[in-house]
Amino acid sequence: MEEKITEGHKAGFVNIVGNPNVGKSTLMNDLVGERVSIITSKAQTTRHRIMGIVNTPEYQIVFSDTPGVLAPKYKLQESMLGYSEGALTDADVLLYVTDVVEDPTKNAEFLGKVAKEKVPVLLVINKIDLLKGGQGELEVIVARWKELLPNAEVFPTSAKEHFNVSNLMGRIVELLPQNPPYFGKDALTDKPARFFVTEIIREKILLNYDKEVPYSAEVIVEKFDEKEGAIHIMAVIYVERDSQKGILIGKAGSKLKKVGTEARKDIETFFGKSVYLELFVKVEPNWRNRENKLRSFGYIE
After folding, report:
1. pLDDT grade, residue 177 (50/70/90)?
2. Pseudo-torsion of CA 84, 89, 94, 97, nearest 10°?
3. Partners of 281 in the β-ladder
4. What DSSP string describes 47-65?
5. What's the rounded Cα separation, in Å, for the pair 205 and 209?
6. Are 163 and 157 spatial neighbours (Cβ–Cβ below 8 Å)?
7. In what order do the strands lie in the sheet with 230-239?
8. Do 66 and 24 form a contact (C-beta atoms < 8 A)?
């Protein structure tokens, strides 16, 4: 059934930017109310721009969670920085997310671009649950940030504790321009189902391995066969070296089996269906620096 669109309907793009590990994905999931972005404690978990869409009869907010801003070391990171810089150009409202421990002078060049923005900028100071010095400590942090982003409205929050997130949401709605919806009113995201399968598997790799393995891994879903009550998925995990393949698989396949079991449970929760998941590991040397591979993996248009 088509949802009725009210007169004076608002719709807009709200882009979330900031450095790695400040809680952008946690905040976006809290605002959207669904687990759209993967969240782990490792930096650089978000590699694409991920849209999460919030609909009511009165408005539609298209949230965009971007990769953390960082100086690129290889072609994949250049592509990721491109997503973040692109987010500055097509926003109706910009959320710049930081936290209470971050050095405000980090990535000054990107921050300078944010300061010049003509659209409203909401400065979200996340993780205030970590503050031990109370209001005085917070005031010092706010003052430092106001020097760098004088036009921004400041919202101290704790996305993890859901503190002040509803006030932030209320302000976003106030700032939205009047527009008809950009996406169907039943849409939750602009990404296809396969995308979330790859993100869930990638999250499990990030959680179960350390050092270089998670950052060298890319997941491609080769089969997504959905029936009434079940989904059959075949996915390939690409790594850059044979040694990484051995680490991923583990002794007698034990590590890969663990990743598969954890991912399957989350995929079943996400889709509300039973899932048969097959995982394979292949070596694709130096894929993060090869343009043809980055294109085939969806990082370069």
Report:
1. very high
2. 20
3. 237
4. -S-EEEEEE-SSEEEEEEE
5. 6
6. yes
7. 218-226, 230-239, 274-283
8. yes
In which band, very low, low, confident or very high, does the pLDDT at 141 lie, cut at 50, 70 and 90?
very high
pTM reported for the whole predicted model: 0.59
Distance between CA 55 and CA 64 in Å, rounded?
Answer: 14
Quote the crossing angle between the two packed helices 75-89 and 108-115, to the nearest 10°: 20
Locate 286 and state its tokens.
């130096």
Dump the DSSP string for 188-247: S-SS-HHHHHHHHHHHHHHHH--TTHHHH-EEEEEEEEE-SSEEEEEEEEEESSHHHHHH
The alpha carbon of residue 159 and the mean position of all alpha carbons in its chain are separated, in whole angstroms, by: 14
Considering 178-187, 240-249, 282-291, the range whose residues carry the highest mean pLDDT is 240-249
Angle between helices 24-32 and 165-175 (to 10 degrees): 70
- Give ∠ CA 215-217-222 in degrees, rounded to 5: 150
Q: What does DSSP assign to residue 262?
A: H
pLDDT digits (tens, 9 = 90+) for 189-248: 656 677 778 888 988 888 888 777 777 888 888 888 888 889 899 998 888 888 889 988
pLDDT tens track for 15-26: 888 887 788 878
